[in-house]
Amino acid sequence: MLTLLKKIFIWWNQETLGTKLKTIFYGKLAGKDSSGNKYYESKSGKRWVIYNDEIDASKIPNEWFSWMHFTNNRIENNHELKKYDWQKPHQSNQTGTENAYHPNKNNDPIKKKYTIWKS
């Protein structure tokens, strides 16, 4: 019962009941990415994603981003591409987390390129 209430009222964590019903009745699974996100398409051409964990649009990898936005490119139909050694795995936006980039993360004092004139 609690799970059903969560599906109805807590829309920001997972798919809602309406999205679940739309996916069951109208959605055709187009594929799944390495993060576990599932991509669906309706007969009318609408596309949507069901996120594996927390809903965050920056979790969509590059090859599926082009599919979601109807961008034609050479990798449109081939989502299982060969990854090279130099390619990093996709990460969602890290802003506001502990993994965010900070230029002075070591708390080193800023080294100035000049000296202050003291009178």
TrEMBL record:
Query: Which is one Gene Ontology cellular component term of this protein?
Result: respiratory chain complex I
InterPro entries per record: NDUFA12
Query: Which stretches of sequence are listed as region Disordered?
Result: 87-112
Q: Supply the EC number(s).
A: 1.6.-.-
Gene Ontology molecular function terms on file: oxidoreductase activity
Into which EC class is this enzyme placed?
oxidoreductase
* GO annotation terms (biological process): response to oxidative stress
Q: Which domain of life is it from?
A: Bacteria
Keyword terms:
Oxidoreductase, Ubiquinone
Q: Where is the composition biased (Polar residues)?
A: 89-98
Q: What is this protein called?
A: NADH-ubiquinone oxidoreductase 17.2 kD subunit of complex I
* Originating species: Pelagibacter ubique (strain HTCC1062)
